[in-house]
């Protein structure tokens, strides 16, 4: 039903081209000094995914593709895939992003986190040929109009974690990386990451509680 | 549902990283379906994966990759989009998916004394099964050679360590020798997974073991 509503909305969509032009402008705004860092900070990836979701916006998708596909490819190569397989799988991952954009919940996860989960599942399929049961989707699904402050926070979590990750002692960071690249068996994984995960957990926990209350 | 026994951080992180055997994935996904606390913890570990992807070096894609991807997208039919999974009674969606429905669809096998089990089809590196334990009945006494997860879906059991009710998960390792007993009343139904064959202390179950595929 939600899907139909969005399809209907699509017909009288204002001009997604205009919205996108505004976003491109924001993409090009960079903090003085470190351009690379600023590029990541300034781009509103979540807004681009919503443009793909609501308007099948190809320009928004192209921007997402340019940023994430090469990272997914590198991630898969570090996980043991050869370049050809990694490239193929990265295309699959981005195609899945397009197809499942309606499942993306910007109030709970950043685009990078969401893309990571798609890439991880693709890796399990392709390299381990195993099945991966997923948790039940939440009854209220992603909200059509998520709270902007929550969206900001979710997207910023990834930045904060990235910074914290970079500041970890080399040995500890390497251990976490090996776990996520599939170099460690589950019994070798050490869950003591030294990262500030408690704040992220609490934020999501509170949001889930609030939504469940609203539902009942 | 007031859940008191949760997943360990190690299991949540291994699931987030995609490093668990299928049978364990099933137990984790089923618990997370019932437990917002672990759902939030899972999201926090997945955010680590996101941060890592974001800070990842890049591997250049070939020039025509975006066009190839757009072709792929236009080839995707709506039919390939999977319907969201549905809960079936006491079985959360990921488990219902393995059974093809709720409790009435389970193909139980008797283990004696009213205790029944059903092995689920998973990858070989670990095995998953459903257990059906009438109230007051003990699960055969067993020690473990590997890791065993037991998630309660209905009723409750007690062992030397504590009480486990709906949604609770007991995590037992090699050192643990325990005798779970189902509480009087409602039949206790659990989802259990182990990465090693169970070793039963009672003589009969041990003889039966090869035939039971545990
Ligand atoms: Zn839990």
Report on this structure.
The complex is a heterodimer of chains A (216) and B (214). Chain A is mainly α. Chain A has helices spanning 2-11, 16-28, 35-42, 45-55, 58-78, 83-99, 111-128, 148-167, 170-180, 197-215. In chain A, helix 4 (45-55) crosses helix 5 (58-78) and helix 5 (58-78) crosses helix 7. Chain A is globular, with a radius of gyration of 18 Å. Mean pLDDT of chain A is 82; it is low at 1-16 and 24-41. By secondary structure, chain B is α+β, with helices and mostly antiparallel strands. Chain B is 32% helix and 22% strand. Chain B is built from six helices and twelve strands. In chain B, strand 1 and strand 2 (115-120) form a beta hairpin. Chain B is elongated. Chain B starts with 8 loop residues before the first helix and ends with a helix. Chains A and B meet through helix 5, helix 6, helix 7, helix 8 and helix 9 of A and helix 1, helix 2, helix 3, helix 4 and helix 5 of B. The complex binds zinc ion. Zinc ion (ZN) is lined by residues 3, 6-7, 31, 35, 37-38 of chain B. Zinc ion is lined by residues 3, 6-7, 31, 35, 37-38 of chain B.
Structural class of chain A: mainly alpha
Euclidean distance between termini CA atoms of chain B: 31 Å
Rg for CA atoms of chain B: 20 Å
The oligomeric status of these chains comes to heterodimer
- Give the largest interface: A-B, 80 and 69 residues
Q: Compute the number of strand runs of chain A.
A: 0
Termini Cα gap of chain A: 20 Å
| Main pleated sheet of chain B | 6 strands, antiparallel
Estimate the mean pLDDT confidence of chain A. Answer: 82
- Could you estimate the helical fraction of the residues of chain B in percent? 25-40%
Helical segment tally of chain A? Answer: 10
Described by strand count, sense and barrel closure, the largest sheet of chain A is: none
> Which structural class is indicated by helix and strand composition of chain B?
alpha+beta
Mean pLDDT of chain B: 86
Tell me roughly what share of residues is in helical segments of chain A.
55-70%
């Amino acid at each position: 039903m939600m899907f139909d509503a969005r399809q209907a909305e699509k017909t009288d969509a204002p001009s997604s081209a205009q919205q996108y032009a505004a976003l491109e402008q924001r993409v090009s705004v960079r903090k003085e000094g470190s351009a690379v860092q600023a590029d990541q900070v300034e781009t509103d990836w979540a807004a681009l995914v919503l443009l793909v979701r609501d308007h099948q916006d190809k320009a928004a998708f192209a921007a997402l593709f340019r940023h994430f596909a090469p990272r997914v490819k590198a991630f898969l190569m570090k996980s043991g895939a050869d370049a050809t397989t990694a490239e193929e799988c990265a295309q699959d991952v981005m195609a899945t992003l397009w197809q499942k954009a309606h499942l993306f919940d910007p109030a709970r996860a950043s685009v990078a986190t969401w893309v990571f989960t798609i890439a991880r599942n693709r890796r399990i399929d392709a390299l381990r040929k195993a099945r991966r049961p997923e948790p039940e989707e939440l009854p209220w699904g992603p909200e059509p109009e998520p709270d902007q402050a929550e969206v900001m926070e979710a997207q910023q979590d990834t930045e904060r974690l990235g910074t914290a990750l970079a500041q970890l002692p080399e040995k500890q960071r390497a251990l976490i990386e090996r776990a996520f690249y599939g170099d460690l068996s589950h019994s070798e994984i050490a869950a003591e990451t030294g990262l500030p995960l408690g704040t992220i957990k609490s934020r999501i926990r509170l949001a889930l509680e609030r939504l469940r209350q609203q539902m009942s | 549902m007031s859940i008191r026994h949760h997943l360990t951080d190690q299991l949540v992180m291994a699931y987030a990283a995609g490093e668990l055997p299928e049978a364990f994935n099933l137990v984790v996904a089923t618990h997370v379906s019932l437990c917002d606390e672990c759902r939030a913890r899972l999201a926090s570990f997945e955010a680590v994966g996101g941060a890592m992807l974001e800070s990842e070096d890049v591997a250049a894609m070939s020039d025509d990759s975006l066009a190839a991807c757009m072709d792929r997208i236009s080839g995707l039919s709506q039919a390939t989009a999977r319907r969201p999974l549905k809960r079936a009674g006491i079985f959360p969606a990921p488990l219902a998916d393995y059974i093809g429905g709720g409790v009435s669809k389970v193909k139980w096998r008797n283990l004696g004394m009213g205790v029944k089990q059903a092995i689920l089809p998973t990858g070989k590196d670990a095995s998953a099964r459903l257990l059906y334990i009438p109230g007051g009945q003990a699960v055969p006494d067993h020690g473990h050679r590997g890791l065993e997860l037991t998630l309660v879906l209905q009723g409750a059991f007690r062992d030397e360590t504590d009480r486990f009710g709906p949604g609770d998960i007991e995590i037992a390792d090699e050192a643990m020798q325990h005798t779970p007993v189902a509480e009087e009343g409602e039949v206790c139904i659990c989802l259990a997974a182990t990465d090693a064959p169970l070793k039963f202390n009672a003589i009969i179950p041990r003889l039966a073991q090869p035939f039971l595929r545990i």
